[in-house]
Structure formats: structure tokens, C-alpha cells
């Protein structure tokens, strides 16, 4: 996909929603309900956006929703393109390219992930502090287009510190409010921090692989986010990453892992997740 393709898609989106958008959000598996929060929303199914692919996995609607949240214009990607679906990396990162051409400054990437830490339980959230790309491929492989960014992009601080601070503060405020109201006391630690390790999927890991990634320093395992984060940083877009912990990784409980459980946990945390996102966006 060329630079001109991304410009064409950005121009179409701007013609349908002619407001300045500083922040874009990518919603992970089971987290799509957040898009319903937008006011005065314009919904663009992916097939209406030039050069966009279509989303094939259950739980991903496949549209870009543009609208207002707390008076701020945002673009929300309801459904993303996963490498495991068979898309090429240039297709997976294309929306991030388009956001860049739209002038987006902040990209909030969310996902469903499995925890390798027994203390980080399903239903909690993890602020991504760094990632490990174990997908076996780098999305920027190939000819570099300098209009996006440098040939050898720095990845020292992929996940923006200021955005992390905002997320931390808002999570603390939510926990405090809920705690004071006597509800959800156990959720005061609902926002963890950790390293997200991206794998190609579509299989979940074996228990041995889970032990390996844990030894290597991963806190959560997933099948997305890293390509988009890399593409965003290549273009100088600030990135915030939030994982919804949907399950303990393979071999950590007596149970097998299934996609339905992943989706159910996403729906269960939707309320607190939406509130956190809303509060973060209001401060950007
Ligand atoms: N592993 C990989 N990806 C995932 C998992 C997991 O356990 N849960 C949700 N996405």
C-alpha cells in the first residue's frame, strides 16, 4: 500500500467528517462497544474507505466511527486487521498510516490479552509500558518511504510516558471513586503495568511457550497492537496501549482457552474500560 493510498483514504474520511481529529482509538476483541459512546457519529464501514481491508474475525465490526466524546473529535476503529487473518503487514498497519495522514497526534491501541502473571487476573487492565515483537516479522520491512519517517526508527520509548501518566491518574481516580462508594473495592488495582508480547497467532500458546515468554520478561500475550504501534512511532504519532486481560495464559489454570471466554471477559470489563478511555480522551 503506497503513501498515496493512505492520503486518498485520509481525504475520503476528512470529506465525510471535516473536523480536526487529534486522537484515534483502536478497539480490541470484545471492546467494540466503546464506539457507541460517540455523539454525532459518522460510521464508515471499511469497504467504503479506499484501500482499507475488511475485518473477518467474530467480535470485530469492521468500521471506522468518527464522532465526539466529551466535546473532543475522535476516530474509533471498531475492528482491526490481524496478521493471523492472513493480511499482509502493510494491510495490518494501513489504518495507522491513514491516521497519520489525517494529522492524528495520539493513537490509543487496545487489545485483549492473556496474562502470564497469576496476580494479574482476568477482568483487569494492563497499561503497556513496552512491547516485545515475537510475531516473526517487522511491519516496516521493505522499502522505506521517508514521507512517513526514518529508515531505522527508534523504539526506545514506544508507549508515551505522558499518556501513561494520564491513564494512571485517571485509573486511580476511578478506583478511588468506586472504592469510596463501597463498590468494586477489589478493583482498586484494576490497572496494572507491563510488557505486551505480540505473537502471530492464531493458535493460543502451549504451556511451555507461556513459560518461555514469561522467562523472557513478558507480562501479557496477544496477537495485535505491535504492528500498529510501530507504524505509529515511525510517523511520530504518540502511542498509548491498554490491554484487557481476558484470561490467564495457557497452562496456568486447569482450563483450556477459548475465544468465547476472551470475548465474554471483554464485555464484562466494558463499563470500566469505557470510563477509563472517556476520561483519558477528555484530557488529550
Ligand atoms: N494468548 C494470546 N493472545 C490472546 C490471549 C492469550 O492467552 N488471550 C487473548 N488474546
How are the SSEs ordered, and which strands pair?
Elements: H1 3-16, E1 23-27, E2 39-45, E3 63-69, E4 72-78, H2 89-92, H3 94-102, E5 106-115, E6 125-134, H4 161-180, E7 191-199, H5 207-216, E8 220-222, H6 226-234, E9 238-248, H7 259-268, H8 270-282
Parallel strand pairs: 1-4, 1-5, 5-9, 6-7, 7-8
Antiparallel strand pairs: 2-3, 3-4, 5-8, 6-9
Helix pairs in contact: 1-3, 3-6, 4-8
Can you offer a commentary on this structure?
The chain is α/β, with parallel strands linked by helices and 284 residues long. It has one domain (3-283): Rossmann fold. The protein has 8 helices and 9 strands. A 5-stranded mixed barrel has the order 5-8-7-6-9, surrounded by 4 helices. Helix 1 (3-16) packs across helix 3, helix 3 (94-102) packs parallel to helix 6 (226-234) and helix 4 crosses helix 8. The longest helix has 20 residues, at 161-180. It is globular. The relative contact order is 0.21. The mean pLDDT is 92. It binds hypoxanthine (HPA). The site of hypoxanthine has 13 residues, from strand 5, strand 8 and strand 9.
Amino acid at each position: 500500500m503506497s503513501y498515496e493510498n493512505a492520503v486518498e483514504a485520509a481525504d475520503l474520511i476528512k470529506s465525510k467528517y471535516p473536523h480536526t481529529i487529534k486522537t484515534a482509538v483502536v478497539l480490541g476483541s470484545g471492546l467494540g462497544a466503546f464506539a457507541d459512546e460517540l455523539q454525532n457519529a459518522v460510521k464508515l464501514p471499511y469497504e467504503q474507505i479506499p484501500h482499507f481491508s475488511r475485518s473477518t474475525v467474530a467480535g470485530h465490526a469492521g468500521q471506522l466511527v468518527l464522532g465526539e466524546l466529551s466535546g473532543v473529535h475522535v476516530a474509533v476503529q471498531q475492528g482491526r486487521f490481524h496478521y493471523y487473518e492472513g493480511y499482509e503487514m502493510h494491510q495490518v498497519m494501513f489504518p495507522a498510516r491513514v491516521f497519520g495522514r489525517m494529522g492524528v497526534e495520539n493513537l490509543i491501541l487496545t487489545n485483549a490479552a492473556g496474562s502470564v502473571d497469576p496476580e494479574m487476573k482476568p477482568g483487569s487492565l494492563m497499561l503497556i509500558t513496552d512491547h516485545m515483537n515475537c510475531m516473526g516479522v517487522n511491519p516496516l520491512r521493505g522499502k522505506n518511504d521517508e514521507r512517513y519517517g526514518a529508515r531505522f526508527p527508534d523504539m526506545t520509548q514506544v508507549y508515551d510516558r505522558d499518556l501513561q501518566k494520564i491513564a494512571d491518574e485517571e485509573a486511580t481516580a476511578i478506583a478511588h471513586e468506586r472504592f469510596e462508594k463501597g463498590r468494586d473495592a477489589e478493583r482498586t488495582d484494576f490497572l496494572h503495568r507491563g510488557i505486551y508480547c505480540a505473537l502471530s497467532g492464531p493458535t493460543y500458546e502451549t504451556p511451555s511457550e507461556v513459560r518461555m515468554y514469561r522467562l523472557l520478561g513478558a507480562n501479557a500475550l496477544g496477537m495485535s497492537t505491535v504492528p500498529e504501534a510501530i507504524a505509529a512511532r515511525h510517523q511520530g504519532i504518540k502511542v498509548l496501549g491498554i490491554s484487557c486481560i481476558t484470561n490467564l495464559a495457557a497452562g496456568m489454570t486447569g482450563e483450556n482457552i477459548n475465544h468465547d471466554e476472551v470475548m465474554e471477559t471483554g464485555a464484562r470489563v466494558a463499563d470500566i474500560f469505557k470510563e477509563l478511555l472517556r476520561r483519558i480522551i477528555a484530557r488529550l
